[in-house]
Design goal:
Layout (H helix, E strand, L loop, with lengths): L1 H26 L1 E17 L7 E16 L9 E17 L5 E22 L4 E22 L25 E12 L3 E10 L17 E13 L2
Antiparallel strand pairs: 1-2, 1-8, 2-3, 3-4, 4-5, 5-6, 6-7, 7-8
Length: 229
């Protein structure tokens, strides 16, 4: 009798595990893709010389993971998206108040996390809109001064050190908000994205040119991706 009860309970446990496994597989789905993109980057700051700041070309390359909370076509409204990507950012200053020209190029390893909501569903594609945040760490880059900016951070004209070196004083860590809209098909993704950094890029102990005092990263562009799964 005890053996029979044990076998019945084991049978019910197996059935329950199969039901739970089937239910879970029907409520989650993951997709992986590689993506690259191009856009423009610049600075936002609280200085009257904002009009003298010019954009620079921004490039992006990395991998992305999408987690759908429900895979069926009529329920797949919410999706969590994260990525690990290398991003180039920077800006150009051509000062009008003081005769200086400064070029800045940085490369970050960036981790954005975005919550997306499907606003349109068709047989061949879906449209998502969402927002979130990102954290980034500076891997390297170059900063270069021309014209009468030989005093800029003590960098002689012609030299191109990394802005993350202690002599330049640029913070290695960055974080901010990001907004994205994308179109997904079975194999492809096309997205438009915009990000705005929150912390100031230079340490308070460094007294750089007024052009980069209290500045934050701003970038936007278009990304193309291919789904591996």
């Amino acid at each position: 009798m005890m053996k029979k009860d044990f076998l019945l309970r084991l049978l019910w446990l197996c059935i329950l595990c199969q039901v739970c496994n089937k239910s879970f597989s029907q409520t989650t789905e993951n997709r992986f893709l590689v993506r690259g993109g191009v856009g423009l980057s610049s600075f936002s700051h609280d200085n009257s010389q904002i009009n003298t700041t010019q954009e620079r070309l921004s490039l992006l390359l990395g991998g992305c993971w999408q987690h759908y909370f429900s895979p069926t076509s009529h329920q797949k409204h919410w999706m969590l998206q994260t990525a690990l990507q290398a991003v180039s950012k920077g800006a150009i200053s051509d000062g009008n108040v003081i005769d200086e020209k400064i070029y800045l190029r940085t490369i970050y390893l960036e981790l954005p996390i975005t919550l997306m909501y499907r606003i349109c569903h068709k047989n061949t594609y879906d449209i998502y809109l969402g927002g979130g945040g990102y954290v980034a760490y500076g891997l390297g880059g170059k900063i270069r001064a021309e014209k009468n900016a030989h005093w800029f951070l003590g960098i002689p004209v012609g030299e191109e050190p990394s802005p993350f070196e202690s002599s330049c004083g640029m913070r290695s860590w960055d974080a901010g908000i990001n907004i994205e809209a994308n179109i997904t098909t079975h194999h492809w993704l096309i997205s438009a994205n915009y990000s705005f950094g929150l912390p100031h890029l230079w340490n308070d102990g460094v007294k750089p040119s007024s052009w980069i005092y209290h500045v934050q990263n701003v970038a936007g562009g278009i990304t193309f991706g291919y789904f591996l799964k």
